[in-house]
């Protein structure tokens, strides 16, 4: 996940965006996302069959306010199996809070895939 954050830290400012990283495992941080234009949410695939999401992420998103009508981008760090289910569950979680998922992706090649996702943020 660190390499992905590094890639976005260089890609997004190059196209005129500012990036604020909130690591929900270490510091849940603020839960009001209203001031932000876009929300990028990423996680690893933790369960190969059920598509379970990390509980820290689920708890954080459920606590969040300001996701209504907010554009979001969803990404997962894939494993052998369970990638699509994890993506769908993450999209469903954000959409349940009123967010519009404008793109989603399995991050297999960090440089290429982060550039593709960044290009969708306008």
Short description:
The chain contains four helices and three strands.
How is this structure best described in words?
- Helix content is 38%, strand content 17%.
- The chain has helices spanning 2-14, 55-63, 83-96, 110-119; strands spanning 38-44, 71-77, 100-106.
- It has a three-stranded parallel beta sheet, covered by helices on one side.
- Helix 3 (83-96) links the parallel strand 2 and strand 3.
- Helix 1 crosses helix 4 (110-119).
- The protein is globular.
- The two termini are 23 Å apart.
- The mean pLDDT is 87.
What are the defining features of this structure?
122 residues, alpha/beta, Rossmann fold, 4 helices, 3 strands
Topology of helices and strands:
Layout: H1 2-14, E1 38-44, H2 55-63, E2 71-77, H3 83-96, E3 100-106, H4 110-119
Helix pairs in contact: 1-4
CATH superfamily: Flavodoxin domain
What is the terminal-to-terminal distance? 23 Å
Q: What about the largest sheet?
A: 3 strands, parallel
Beta percentage is 15-25%
Count of the separate structural domains: 1
Stated plainly, the CATH topology is called: Rossmann fold
Fraction of residues in helix: 25-40%
Order of helices and strands: HEHEHEH
The CATH architecture can be named as 3-Layer(aba) Sandwich
Arithmetic mean pLDDT: 87
Strand order of the largest sheet: 1-2-3
């Amino acid at each position: 996940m660190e390499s992905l954050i590094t890639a976005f830290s260089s890609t997004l400012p190059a196209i005129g965006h500012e990036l604020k990283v909130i690591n929900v495992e270490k510091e849940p941080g603020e839960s009001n996302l209203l001031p932000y234009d876009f929300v990028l949410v990423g996680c690893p695939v933790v369960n190969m069959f059920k598509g379970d999401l990390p509980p820290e992420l689920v708890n954080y998103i459920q606590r969040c306010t300001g996701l209504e009508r907010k554009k979001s981008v969803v990404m997962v760090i894939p494993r052998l199996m369970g990638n699509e289910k994890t993506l769908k569950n993450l999209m469903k979680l954000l959409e349940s809070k009123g967010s519009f998922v404008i793109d989603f992706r399995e991050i297999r090649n960090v440089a290429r895939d982060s550039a593709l996702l960044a290009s969708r943020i306008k």
